[in-house]
TrEMBL record:
PANTHER family: PROTEIN CBG26694, PROTEIN NYNRIN-LIKE. It comes from the Eukaryota. This is RNA-directed DNA polymerase. Gene3D superfamilies: 1.10.340.70, Ribonuclease H-like superfamily/Ribonuclease H.
């Protein structure tokens, strides 16, 4: 058998390991080795088993559970050949290569009227900051501090805000290539508004916790937490003992 032969060759050669009769690739974490006969089946199963099949395929190619050589190339080739995938707007195959940026209006707290949010389209990871105005300079400093200095400079900036983003300062930061409309911040806005109504004087204190909750919640389009997609591990969460 193919798998048996491979196990005999590599079972004593890291990063390949055998556990319970299954061959794993274990460079950083264990991934099941998939033989040639099963590779297309895994791709098709992932493609058909998700509400957002193209994002699921991208996640398969970047992560986590399976391994075979040239997996990313095989997934990319499948996407290019798939009629339904080509009919939808494509997003990036890389972490923080394509982001969405928008501004939410909330109840004013200590002069802060808005929250600017940036979301990575691949992992759904979000960054946010309360701001007092929607000027280009204010938004650009958010992009520089929270996106570029933490995650690198994205190739594409996508905006819903019009003139706040289409300006010379942001053009220089991102070399803007186009805009699309997304509405993936509505849930964040709802949670933030609820918290501001309950604790109207601590917007900046509430925001990190709201972001952490979003980052560690399973996203409907990928089936995974943004935290896990970005860091390739589960978040360590401390729960209070209420007993």
């Amino acid at each position: 058998m193919y798998v048996t032969a491979i196990m005999n060759i590599w079972k004593n050669n890291p990063p390949f390991q055998v556990e319970n009769g299954q061959l794993f690739y274990k460079k950083t974490h264990a991934r099941v080795i998939i033989n040639a006969d099963e590779q297309l089946h895994i791709i098709k199963m992932t493609h058909c088993g998700s509400d957002s099949s193209i994002e699921a395929l991208r996640f398969l190619s970047s992560y986590k559970s399976y391994f075979w050589y040239h997996m990313s190339d095989d997934v990319r080739d499948f996407i290019m050949r798939c009629d339904s995938c080509q009919r939808v707007n494509s997003t990036s195959l890389k972490v923080f290569n394509q982001i969405g940026v928008d501004i939410m209006t909330l109840s004013e707290v200590d002069g802060f009227k808005y929250v600017v949010v940036g979301i990575d389209y691949f992992t759904k990871w979000s960054e946010a900051r309360p701001i007092k105005d929607k000027s280009a300079v204010t938004v650009a400093w958010f992009l520089y501090d929270e996106i570029i200095c933490r995650h690198g400079c994205p190739k594409i900036q996508i905006s819903d805000q019009g003139r706040e983003f289409v300006n010379k300062l942001n053009d220089e930061l991102f070399r803007l290539t186009g805009t699309k409309h997304r509405h993936i911040i509505r849930k964040l806005q709802s949670v933030l508004q609820d918290n501001v109504l309950q604790w109207p004087y601590i917007l900046q204190g509430v925001l990190p916790g709201v972001l952490f909750a979003h980052r560690t919640a399973q996203h409907s389009s990928t089936g995974y937490m943004p935290f896990k997609m970005l860091y390739q591990r589960d978040a360590t969460v401390v729960y209070a003992d209420c007993s």
